[in-house]
């Protein structure tokens, strides 16, 4: 059993720990009224900021050659299965490409579709050397298509001043490259306007 002095010392120490911001005189003043409200000071937890994972910059991607296709992989036959997958993707997108399908509806969907794996042909161009180039689209950038031809040659064809055609199940669609200069990832949200005549 504690004596009166030990008990008083314990209470004083306990109150001082419980109310660290108050002075001893103020605590004694509270004790005279025989009512003590203990304060609670929770330990503040510092929130750790989540670091966002940053991707590679365009310069880093070029230095690492992430988008370059090795010469031994530049073969037309390798990418034929990709073309078959693309055809199935377009059929599903256009609900089977039925004969009674409205051409402008199919055209609208093709303009927003992913063209990686499509067989493109340059039908018109201000540069005659591009006309007739046909191949599977390996990569699409904002301003150019990278196409692998049947001769196993990788061609970089600019979109500007070129008209391309693609054919699937008898349906032929034309793409005016000058109006098509947009990244593939952004094209699905773009609204294309139908125009009667478009110059190269």
Strand content: 15-25%
Give the end-to-end Cα distance, rounded to a whole number of Å.
Answer: 103 Å
Order of strands across the widest beta sheet?
A: 4-3-2-1-5-6
CATH T-level topology of one domain: SH3 type barrels
Portion in helices = 25-40%
Give a verbal description of the structure:
The protein is elongated. It has a domain at 71-189: Ribonuclease P/MRP, subunit p29 (SH3 type barrels), CATH 2.30.30.210. Strand 1 and strand 2 (134-140) form a beta hairpin. It has helices at 4-18, 24-32, 58-64, 80-93, 103-112, 184-187; strands at 119-125, 134-140, 144-149, 154-158, 162-168, 171-176. It is α+β, with helices and mostly antiparallel strands and 200 residues long. A 6-stranded antiparallel sheet has the order 4-3-2-1-5-6. InterPro entries: RNase_P/MRP_Rpp29-subunit (IPR016848), RNase_P/MRP_Rpp29_sf (IPR036980), Rof/RNase_P-like (IPR023534), Rpp29/RNP1 (IPR002730). This is Ribonuclease P protein subunit p29. Its main location: nucleus. One of its GO terms (molecular function) is ribonuclease P RNA binding. Component of ribonuclease P, a ribonucleoprotein complex that generates mature tRNA molecules by cleaving their 5'-ends.
